[in-house]
Structure formats: structure tokens, C-alpha cells
Amino acid sequence: MLMLTCPYCGIDADETELTPGGQAHLTRETVGSDDDTFESYLFMRENPKGVHFERWRHSYGCGKWFHAARCTVTLEVFGTYSAQTTEPPKEICDKISGKRPGWSWGSFS
Amino acid sequence: MSDTFAMIEQVGPRGMMTLRGDLSSTKLKNAATGVAGVDFPGISECNCVDERGIAWMSPDEVLVITPYDEIAKDLKRMQKILSGTHHLLANVSDARSVFMISGAKSREIIAKLSPVDLHPDSLIPGQFRRTRLAQVPAAFWMRDKNTFELICFRSVADYVSTLLHNAASAGSEVGYFQ
To answer: From what superkingdom does this record's organism come (chain A) (predicted)?
Structure first.
């Protein structure tokens, strides 16, 4: 069972109380983007075996979107953090580095 | 309904107002506490005395609870205090149903139906928990160590009532928290 701590209400929410929102930290390409970057924004997603960053919504609780860093192999959760950011906070990255040295994900490592 | 090992009753109707805005604003806090007559709740908390109270719903929303027949008056009072402040205030009384679950084993009923940690050390009176009850959204808090107050949408009140009675049917006690 996957349990994530909602960073807004501090509740340990069960997976069934949450709605998955797919990959985190996408840059939304829009008017003015060239076709290649727009295509990759629309269709290309990370599909890692290991460290992954995702968006989740605490839909049966406070209703807020947040980010989660977790491992897709062991389901270990490294941490959750606010949605008001475009990159994972340093303490989350440091925690992952401690447990999965040499990790990388998209442009983060 | 068949025998139950805890008392389940649908109470109310209860007056409820959804108040959204900046929860750190003094004006907003004053409006809520002025009408409800209780302290402003912290994160995931509920302060409730008799039929009045305030429940923390999300980082920008609280639920103000009042007696049903005083809702019009209370709504006007809050609108007056909040005028000029960016906010949303809506009377949601008729969209909600309230249940009281009381008895020494009342924890078990909720524990059977929601994914919440209901251990007596984890869930204590004063906490407010929004969650799901089987397949529908619901929220509950504890009046005292043996009494739960639960709110859900009125459109699913029949479903919730059946769920609660079924989970409480006599002889189906698990005894995990004893």
C-alpha cells in the first residue's frame, strides 16, 4: 500500500484517498514553442525504474495538489513537498542522494 | 434496522457555511470565531461546542457550523464582518447530513469503513479528518472518546446510513482497539 503525507494538512493519506496526477515538473509548452518541444511536452514522459517524481492530489482530503518523490521499485517514499515549485527542494534531493547515490531524473540529479 | 453495537443516529439538519479565503487574515478569523463562539482551529483540527463550531477543511477553507434555524442571521453577520475582504462564503447546510456514532466501540465502525488510522493514540478528540467512507467522501471528528460526529453529502446520506448500520451490526465487533 502506498501512503503519502500531504504537505498541506499533514495527514498520512492512503493511496485510495489520493488521485494520481502523473509526472511532476513538466514545463508547459505553449504558443511560440517549436513543434519538437511541444510534442515532447505532450507525449514524452519519464518511465524510470527507481527514483521518480510525481504529482498527487489529496482529493478525499484537503483537495490540494502536491509533489511526491518515491522509488518505483521498492515503493519507498523519499518525501512529499508543495506544488508551488518547479524543481524538487534541496532536502528531498539530498535525502535521495543518501539512499540512491548517483540517481538522476530528467534534468535533476 | 437490526441490532447495532453502537448507537447511530442521523442528527440535524445543521447550519453549515463554507468560508474560503486567506486563513491568516484577522478579519476572516474574527468573522468565523465571532459567529461560532469557539477558537479558530489549527491545521486538521475542529473546535466544536454544542451546535456551533469551526472545522479546518483545507489551507484556504474552513467550515463554520451553527444551529440550522440561525443560519440566515449568522450568514448576514459574517458577510458584514467580511465586507471588503477577498473571500467566498456559502450556505451549504442543505447539502450536508450529520451522523452521531456513540458507544465504547464506535471507533470500530469508522475503522471498518475508512482508510484512517483510528488507534486511540492516533485519532483523538479535537482532530478533524476528511476522508472517504467506503466509496463516498465524508469527514468526522470526535466529540469525546466514545462519540464521533460525521458529515457527508446529503445526496449519499442513505448510503452512509446503511454503511454505518451494516458495519455496526451486533456480533460483528472486531475488538481490535480493546
So the answer is: Bacteria
Which of the listed CATH numbers 3.30.2270.10, 3.40.50.300, 1.25.40.10, 3.40.50.11270 matches domain A3-99? 3.30.2270.10
Smallest Cβ distance to A62: which of B59, B117, B132? B59
Contacts of B136 in chain A (CB under 8 A): none
Nearest CB to A62; choose among B57, B115, B132: B57
Instruction: Report yes or no: B150 and B98 within 8 Å, Cβ to Cβ.
Output: yes
**pLDDT per residue as tens digits for the range A43-80:** 999 999 999 999 999 999 999 999 999 999 999 999 99
Domain ranges of chain B: 13-93, 95-167
Residue B1: the pLDDT is 57
> Does residue B175 have a pLDDT over 90?
no
Nearest to residue B118, comparing CAs of B154, B136, B145, B153?
A: B145
A82 — contact with chain B (CB < 8 Å)? no
Q: Assess A16–B contact: CB distance below 8 Å, yes or no.
A: yes
Q: Report CB contact under 8 Å: B58, A10.
A: no
Query: Which stretches of chain A are DSSP H helices?
Result: 35-43, 90-99
Tell me the chain B residues in contact with residue A8 when contact means C-beta distances shorter than 8 Å: 43, 58-59
- Cα distances from B45 to residues A11, A97, B23, B104, in angstroms, run 11, 35, 13, 22
- CATH 3.30.1360.120 for domain B95-167: yes
Q: Is A12 in Cβ contact with B58 (below 8 Å)?
A: no
**Cα B95 to Cα B91: distance, rounded to the nearest angstrom:** 9
Query: Given this model, what pLDDT does residue A99 score?
Result: 93
pLDDT tens column, B1-21: 578 999 999 997 999 999 999
Domain boundaries, chain A: 3-99
What is the chain B residue with the closest CA to A14?
B115
